[in-house]
Amino acid sequence: MVEVAVIGGDGIGPEVVGAGIRVLEAAAEDDPSLDLEFTEFPWGCEYYLEHGRMMPDDALETLAAFDVLYLGAVGWPTVPDHVSLWGLLLPIRRGFDQYVNLRPTRVLRGVESPLSEAGTLDITVVRENTEGEYSDSGGRIYRGTPHEIAIQDSVFTRRGVERIVRYAYEEAGRRRGLLVGATKSNGISITMPFFDEIFREVGDGYQDVEASLMHADALAARLVLDPGSFDVVVGSNLLGDILSEVTAAISGAIGIAPSANLNPEGAYPSLFEPIHGSAPDIAGKGVANPSGAIWAGALMLDHTGHPEAGQRVLTALEDTLADGVKTGDLGGSATTDEVTGAVVERVRNANAGS
Question: In whole angstroms, what is the distance from residue 309 CA to residue 280 CA?
Answer without folding.
Answer: 32
